[in-house]
């Protein structure tokens, strides 16, 4: 049985005050949450968030990392620095990083490897654009994205990877994939892993992301191959986020 995982991606939305309010709000409702819950904060707030979650069942993640360990990379943050703050998770290859900052499949694969090398669990994001879905190329796109990572890190590494399927057309749009669309693609992603190792395919968590909210979370997470959610907008309000956490 795969444990349900619900992760909040705050993106570039935070202040010292909002982080306090949001994390304390989530913590106050965690008693009856059985899912694993992660909140992914912007870099300046990782330490604050990590301090707030000490001794709780809430986990903190970062949203990106650089592939180098240190050096002349102005404005960048390394996996070692993230780990230094006690943070255990990092989002890798989010579609916004791919489209706005030119992250290719090869770069994303390297980032997954560097995260793993540093003991961080990557939340490895994949997903197709609207035109790719409409032209019937969803499976080709997600295959390319997954295989780039399998080729570099090997299938065994998926014991420490969380996959997040986020159809780009569903991110921040209010248009959610139907449970059937999401389930079909999740099952396909699992079949890609199973080509290499069926046990690992069965145990790898595959989260859905893209306009998941308290109203649709239960039906989506209820699908056989959907193991939780990666939540953007609805992760910024403690009550909404907790409702999703309890849907699992
Ligand atoms: P929304 O939930 O706002 O659509 O964002 C999803 C997402 O990009 C999570 O990484």
The overall pLDDT, averaged over residues, is: 97
Bound molecules: 1,3-dihydroxyacetonephosphate
What structural category arises from helix and sheet content? alpha/beta
Tally of DSSP helical segments: 11
C-alpha termini separation: 13 Å
Strand tally is 8
**Stretches where pLDDT falls below 50 for ≥5 residues?**
none
Q: Tell me, what's the shape? A: globular
Provide the helix percentage.
Answer: 40-55%
- Strand line-up in the sheet with most strands: 1-2-3-4-5-6-7-8
Secondary-structure element pattern, one letter each:
EHEHEHEHHEHHEHHEHEH
State the major sheet. Answer: 8 strands, parallel, barrel
Rg (C-alpha, Å): 17 Å
Strand content: 5-15%
What does this structure look like?
The protein has eleven helices and eight strands. By secondary structure, the chain is of the alpha/beta class. It has an eight-stranded parallel beta barrel, surrounded by six helices. α1 (16-28) runs parallel beside α11 (238-245). The protein is globular and about 45 Å long. The mean pLDDT is 97. Residues 9, 94, 166, 171-172, 209-212, 230-234 line the site of 1,3-dihydroxyacetonephosphate. 1,3-dihydroxyacetonephosphate binds next to β8.
Question: What would a concise description of this structure say?
Answer:
Helices cover 41% and strands 15% of the residues.
What are the salient characteristics of this protein?
248 residues, alpha/beta, 8-stranded parallel beta barrel, 15% strand, binds 1,3-dihydroxyacetonephosphate
């Amino acid at each position: 049985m795969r444990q349900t995982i619900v992760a909040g991606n705050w993106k570039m939305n935070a202040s010292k005050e909002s982080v306090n309010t949001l994390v304390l709000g989530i913590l106050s409702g965690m008693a009856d949450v059985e899912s694993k819950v992660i909140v992914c904060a912007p870099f300046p707030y990782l330490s604050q968030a990590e301090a707030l979650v000490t001794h709780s069942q809430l986990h903190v993640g970062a949203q990106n990392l650089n592939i180098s360990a240190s050096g002349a990379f102005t404005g960048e943050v390394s996996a070692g620095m993230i780990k230094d703050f006690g943070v255990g998770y990092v989002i890798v290859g989010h579609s916004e990083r791919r489209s706005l900052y030119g992250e290719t499949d090869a770069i994303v694969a390297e980032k997954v490897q560097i995260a793993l090398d540093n003991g961080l669990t990557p939340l490895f994001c994949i997903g197709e654009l609207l035109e790719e879905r409409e032209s019937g190329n969803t499976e080709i796109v997600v295959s390319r994205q997954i295989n780039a990572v399998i080729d570099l890190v090997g299938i065994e590494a998926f014991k420490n990877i969380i996959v997040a399927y986020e159809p780009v057309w569903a991110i921040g749009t209010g248009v959610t994939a139907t449970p059937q669309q999401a389930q079909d693609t999740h099952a396909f992603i699992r079949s890609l892993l199973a080509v290499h190792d069926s046990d690992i395919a069965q145990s790898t968590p595959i989260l859905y992301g893209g306009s998941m909210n308290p109203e649709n979370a239960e039906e989506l997470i209820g699908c056989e191959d959907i193991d939780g959610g990666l939540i953007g907008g609805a992760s910024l309000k403690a009550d909404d986020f907790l409702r999703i956490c309890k849907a699992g």
